[in-house]
Specification:
The protein has two domains: 322 residues, Up-down Bundle (ABC transporter transmembrane region fold); 243 residues, Rossmann fold. It is 62% helix and 10% strand. It has 22 helices and ten strands. The strands form two sheets. The protein has a six-stranded mixed beta sheet with strand order 6-7-8-3-9-10, with helices on both faces. The chain has a four-stranded antiparallel beta sheet with strand order 2-1-4-5, covered by helices on one side. A hairpin with a 5-residue loop joins strand 1 and strand 2. It is found in: Cell membrane.
């Protein structure tokens, strides 16, 4: 469940709102950062006390506490120093552990929530987005947030504490000159805000360029066989080179601006340091200030210098993190998912009867795909959907699975509109074998068992045998334990399709949908699969989309689509006898008519 109240607010506000469940850890991490910095600022005061003891002896500040002997004063000071350093080290350990734990918890939770929300989006969303850009958000952008929480948050807190404590020391111990160290502060704050405004759009551009580069890399890795077959390696080298160069130049523009921050801050702090050095020095020489206090002021001014000069690096981390937060939160608040129905659909109650009533459908881009389509699929029937390329066959399957909603009319399943059913129940009711077979990197067993994770070895082998896959699997180097490679690249197209078919068979759904499921197998294997389908299709509704008409020859009913409309329907023999579109397609495929 994503947590993004105030999603229209600034990225930092959105991040803090998201981190509310971790506020206990945030408070402790902040407390440890504050305590560490307080103890870290103590050494300059201890040095001033040591100088005071050496110069003043029995008249020192510590002597006023009742310890007159200078040697004893030094021993007490040494003991206090040990305690201060121990506590400083303890709190440094604690704030590092807590901030890093917080970074891990946040990035882990954010990645899971973002991925979970992304999976809920409808398929149309992924058609408009680059997979490489989505990967960059889920991986690199979330890692940017982790890096900021690891170091940047603590640095910002400690800079604030440093300025507050040192400013207080100046104003309470030597108000007449302490203001000199604080004069640069408004300019530093103004400069920080100015740099932040200038850097923000530049970092957004950097993240966008990173997404473009990642997208092309993912695209090229997936299409490596095509690149090699066309000999376009040099072309792709140049394309990746251009994108990488754009990313580099975007980063360089940021670096040139952000690198100017520290030198400018250093010059501003220098003015305050020089003022303390000269005017406090004159006052000490004239006897108006103790040497120990002068030492403290010089040392704490130096302590103010280093955290503020690191502020540039911290702002760099901050701006990168905020640019990434904007992209992550944009993905997290995306709501392009189909509305879920409230009607349950138990798998054992599904009859599998479909009615298409005046169904219109079109994608976001392009014209109508299905137009006023009316057809009926009887419960328990095996039906074929055929037609020329672009007739709307695969789109019809996507509507049956409710990957998309119709743009007009309605589709009924067992007398009820598909949109009324719970999406998860619809998925459970139907098993899909797509022409675009996807296998995961893993073993043959893991791919067949996918979605039916409790299936036994015997059930897996039975499904493989029905899909005519068992024999070739046993011929693989490790049988069912053979790793198929990413997207099943170690297998042939026909082997991948048969494993995909076995996966659907193992699911044992009341409705089986085959989208060109035998397009990549030879005629002999297709004939064997058809024999198996005769057994598989018994007592279930089976919808077969086929380019090869031989695949649906024995179907109970065949629907012929043309230009998104139902041209004709009937059995194979009936359609051939009518001598219309199906007859023409059959004559061409059977070789009786040459194209």
């Amino acid at each position: 469940m994503s947590r993004i109240p105030g999603a229209d607010k600034a990225p930092l506000f959105q991040l803090l709102q998201y981190m509310k469940p971790f506020r206990g850890k945030v408070r402790l991490a902040t407390l440890f950062s504050v305590l560490n910095k307080l103890f870290d600022l103590a050494p300059p005061i201890l040095i001033g006390a040591a100088v005071d003891i050496v110069v003043q002896g029995e008249e020192s500040l510590i002597a006023s506490l009742g310890i007159k002997d200078p040697f004893t004063q030094l021993l007490w000071l040494a003991g206090i120093t040990v305690v201060v350093w121990v506590f400083e080290s303890v709190f440094q350990y604690l704030f590092e552990v807590y901030w890093r734990d917080l970074a891990q918890f946040t990035q882990d939770s954010l990645r899971k929530d973002t991925y979970r929300n992304m999976q809920q989006q409808e398929l149309a969303y992924f058609e408009d987005r680059s997979s490489g850009d989505l990967i960059a958000i889920l991986n690199d952008d979330i890692n940017q947030l982790e890096r900021f929480l690891d170091h940047g948050a603590n640095d910002l807190i400690q800079v604030f504490i440093t300025v507050t404590v040192i400013g207080s020391i100046f104003m309470f111990s030597a108000p007449e000159i302490g203001w000199m160290a604080l004069v640069p502060m408004p300019f530093i704050i103004w400069g920080s805000v100015w740099f932040q405004k200038k850097l923000a759009p530049r970092y957004s551009l950097v993240r966008n360029k990173a997404g473009e580069l990642s997208s092309q890399l993912v695209n090229n890795l997936g299409g490596m066989a095509t690149i090699k077959s066309f000999g376009t390696q040099e072309y792709e080298n140049e394309r990746i080179g251009r994108l990488s160069d754009n990313y580099k130049k975007a980063n360089q523009r940021v670096i040139r601006l952000s690198s100017a921050f520290v030198p400018l801050i250093r010059m501003l702090i220098l003015s305050g340091f020089i003022g303390i050095l000269i005017f406090a020095g004159f006052k000490t020489l004239e006897g108006g200030m103790e040497v120990g206090l002068y030492s403290v002021l010089i040392f704490v001014t130096q302590r103010l210098l280093w955290p503020l000069t690191r502020l540039g690096e911290t702002f760099d981390l901050y701006q990168r993190a905020m640019a990434s937060t904007k992209r992550v939160m944009s993905l997290l608040k995306t709501t392009e998912h189909l509305p879920d129905g409230d009607q349950p659909l138990p798998a054992d109650k599904v009859e599998g009867e479909y009615q298409f009533e005046d169904v219109d459908f079109e994608y976001r881009t392009g014209g109508p795909v299905l137009k006023k389509l009316n057809l009926e699929i009887k419960s328990g029937q095996t039906v074929g959907i055929v037609g020329a390329t672009g007739a709307g066959k695969s789109s019809l399957i996507k509507l049956l699975m409710r990957f998309y909603d119709v743009t007009g009319g309605r589709i009924l399943l067992d007398g009820r509109d598909l949109r009324e059913y719970k999406l998860n129940d619809l998925v459970s009711a139907a098993g899909l074998v797509s022409q675009d077979v996807f296998l995961f990197h893993g073993t043959v067993t893991e791919n067949i068992r996918y979605g039916s994770f409790d299936a036994s070895r015997e059930e897996i082998e039975r499904a493989a045998k029905l899909a005519e896959a068992h024999d070739f699997i046993m011929g693989l180097p490790d049988g069912y334990k053979t790793v198929v490679g990413e997207r099943g690249q170690k297998l042939s197209g026909g082997q991948r399709q048969r494993i995909s078919l076995a996966r659907a068979i193992l699911k044992d759904p009341p409705i089986l949908i085959l989208d060109e499921a035998t397009s990549a197998v030879d005629n002999e294997t297709e004939a064997a699969i058809q024999r198996s389908l005769f057994k598989i299709a018994k007592d279930r509704t089976t919808v077969i989309i086929a380019h090869r008409l031989s695949t649906v020859r024995n179907a109970d009913n065949i629907f012929v689509l043309e230009d998104g409309e139902l041209a004709e329907s009937g059995t194979h023999n009936e359609l051939v006898d009518r001598e219309r579109l199906y007859h023409q397609l059959w004559m061409v495929q059977s070789g009786e008519v040459k194209v």
